[in-house]
Design a protein that fits this description.
5 helices; 83% helix; 126 residues; mainly alpha; single chain
Length: 126
């Protein structure tokens, strides 16, 4: 009989684990994403070079949403904490990638403008 109780104990633990509803899972990752977007739109950041811009922020939101929907479909029994943890890592990954793209673009356009100034100087002798 002790063996039977021991066998039932993990079943109740896994029953608690699967008690997370799809709505709770969605709320968990949506809360992480909303917090990250609020940080990206912080008024102190908006005026600085750290600001990604609305287009990049929307791209990050779309990518995180797609990844999280795929994660929830692949892991329907994930707990809210597991979903939140995965959402944090996914959000950081996409936010970092967007920051690198912005740095690359800023660097490219900076070099482009410098080259333009050089060509104008050569052309007009200024």
């Amino acid at each position: 009989m002790t063996t039977k109780i021991a066998n039932n104990a993990p079943a109740t633990g896994s029953a608690r684990k699967s008690a997370t509803t799809p709505q709770q899972q969605t709320q968990a990752w949506q809360g992480v994403l909303d917090s990250a977007v609020a940080n990206m739109n912080d008024p102190e950041i908006k005026g600085s070079t750290k600001y990604l811009g609305e287009g990049r922020i929307n791209t990050v939101k779309q990518k995180v949403q797609g990844d999280m929907e795929a994660f929830i479909q692949a892991n329907p029994n994930a707990t809210a904490d597991e979903v939140k943890s995965h959402a944090e890592s996914t959000t950081k990954k996409h936010e970092t990638n967007a920051m690198f793209q912005k740095m690359r673009d800023d660097n490219f356009f900076g070099k482009l403008m410098n080259r333009r100034k050089e060509l104008l100087k050569d052309m007009w002798g200024e």
